[in-house]
Amino acid sequence: MLNTISLLLRNLLFTVLNPGLVVGVIPYWILGNKTVGLFARPLQTHQYLGMLLFIMGFIVLIGCITRFIVEGRGTLSPIDPTKRLVVKGLYKYSRNPMYAGVMMMLIGEAAFFQSGNLWIYLVLIFLIFNLFIVLVEEPRLHSDFGEDYYRYRQKVRRWV
């Protein structure tokens, strides 16, 4: 029980630090004053679409984090990784659904605010994610889980 509470708290911390920074703090900084008085006027279609994509991405992110806690017995952070390879749920279809969820949230923000700067940021983040996955995460997973990860990698695509 104490271990589960510790996992929950560590995941909360890493969620605030990792996706919270990428999806929250940095976009807010990029947008500057575009958020002031936002809800003073009726929302437009692109804003509803943006909200829908953001919410869907958030649900994917929370589902993946939950799976990391329950099945993987670890966190989303590379400094406190899962103890077991997670291959169920959305991980049956993509090796990186958590990153895909974050990307969906960023697409939602860019669509909502119709911000060219957020679209540029989104492309940059995707490139950074992809480099990190290929150069750091996949080698670590292979090292940690060996043949199990190799077989999983053969069956499931990196993205979607």
Written overview of the protein:
The structure is a single chain. With 160 residues, this protein is mostly helical. The chain has a domain at 1-7 and 63-160. The protein has helices at 2-17, 19-31, 45-72, 97-113, 116-155. α4 packs antiparallel against α5 (116-155). The longest helix is centred in the C-terminal third of the chain and has 40 residues, at 116-155. The termini are far apart.
Number of helices: 5
Low-pLDDT residue spans: none
Order of helices and strands: HHHHH
Mean model confidence by pLDDT: 89
Helicity range of the residues? Answer: over 70%
The proportion of residues in beta strands is: under 5%
Structural class estimated from helices and strands = mainly alpha
Largest sheet: number of strands, sense, barrel closure: none
The total strand number stands at: 0
- What overall form do the CA principal axes indicate? globular
SSE inventory with pairings:
Elements: H1 2-17, H2 19-31, H3 45-72, H4 97-113, H5 116-155
Helix pairs in contact: 1-2, 2-4, 2-5, 3-4, 4-5
